Amino acid sequence: MYWGAPDVDMYLNTKSFIWCNVSTSQISWDTLFKEAEVLHSQAKEIDIVENKVFQLLGIEVFNPCLEQIRYLEENDDLYEQMIMEPLISKFEGSIVDPMRYAKAIKNLIDAKESLNSASQMD
Amino acid sequence: MFMSLLTFGIYCVNFAALREATRSDFIREQLKNLAQSRLNNNSLSIVICPGDALYLFAQLVGTELASLMNKVPKFLEYESGSNMTLLSSDGPADIYFCEKGSTHIVALKQFYYKSELERHDVALLKSYLDADTMASLILPSHGILHYFDPSFKPIILRYHREPGRATAAQGVDLALDTKATLQTGYCPILHVPYLYPSFVLVGNVDPIVLTMSLPRSKWHKHFIGFLASYCSARVRSSSFRTYFFNHAFESFQDKSVLPIGNCIPRAYREKFGSEFLGIPERQKVTNKLVSAQMVQAAVKVLSKFKFVIAFENAQAPGYITEKIVNAKLSGKFQKSLIDADLLKIHCRWNSRVLGCSRR
What we know:
The complex is a heterodimer.
Chain A: E1 2-3, H1 29-38, H2 45-57, H3 63-74, H4 76-84, H5 98-121
Helix pairs in contact in A: 1-2
Chain B: H1 2-6, H2 15-18, H3 24-39, E1 43-48, H4 52-68, E2 72-77, E3 95-99, H5 103-109, E4 113-115, H6 119-128, H7 131-135, E5 137-138, E6 145-147, E7 155-160, E8 174-177, E9 189-191, H8 196-201, E10 222-226, H9 238-251, E11 257-259, H10 266-272, H11 282-285, H12 292-302, E12 305-311, H13 322-329, H14 340-349
Parallel strand pairs in B: 1-2, 1-3, 3-7, 7-8, 8-9, 10-11, 10-12
Antiparallel strand pairs in B: 4-6, 5-6
Helix pairs in contact in B: 12-13
């Protein structure tokens, strides 16, 4: 079960895991932390923040994820199918292809070299 | 291209000739000769600062970069507090790969070249050189003279593990950030997802093999595993994942929903307390350093679970860490889908992997 990058589907094959695509953009984390700090003597900060998250998002945001777990638990074939899906379906140019980063660094070196040449000509 | 960068390179003093020299121009001539010799150098020297995650990433990227430049990669590991990796016999390295925290060490060291000059030569040198040249000398503390050309500057790359920290990078040429969203900073920013280390740690293998073939339910001891090294309300949105754990724990009360790392969320704590759960790998997987040992331990412990909560500590574009990779790696591999080396590694982690001989 994955939650995190809202654009994870640009990088990974989302058929290979349960994507809990829940947005927390409406939550102002900094504000929550400050509130939690004020109330620190009453309860643990993380519990306070969790309660605030609950108030803001509601527990139902997780229902689709939990439903998928239940569904896969009852369907071995579908579970296995998901397990079989590759996390990255094409290596070349993907985020785990080192050449992707080498080319970017090479471009940087070329740009620097051009700048140096230009400054020498001046 | 890159070669011309090296013309600004580091020069050394030929002290044997220096004894006979009467003018500093002679020294400058020697310096030019050294610069020329660097032009003929066919290696791309890369210093890698500490950090397993960065080390492995830099090795792969450095190798590819060298091939793009028709050069041979030469890797040096920077040891904190030591000048030796900065002072190779070829002069400074062409590229420095550092993590945040190490970059400033490299930046402050300057880039100089070591010359075998005895202490008594320094007095001689002083009488020959003009003030400008003397200003660029680091006088020896151990009988070694360092000369550097301030116009030479290697490529400095700085890697940031946490998202969105690249804006603070100064004095570097390129910041490698785990967040995809470009931000205004002091230098260009390149997105490098955090998940990279886990892929690298399994060796040079096509990630397509990260597929599993066996019904995991046959193997699983537990239902849902939650691996997080800490619970902290202050670390961005990490409380979101504990919030989810609590809900999953209460929703599947008849199944084993367990925290594995140092973070024991409230729902579990209230029922069972914060005692150690009896999973021997726990200490290893909660080590903050992303190391091969940590990945191996994490994969091993996660393999006991049918489902794994792989939630990030922040919701940011492109911020994808090792968690999802480790979760996938924790499955069982079909022998025909992986090469022998990878199988060997996995057999060390988990002897139940299909294809491993039971010894």
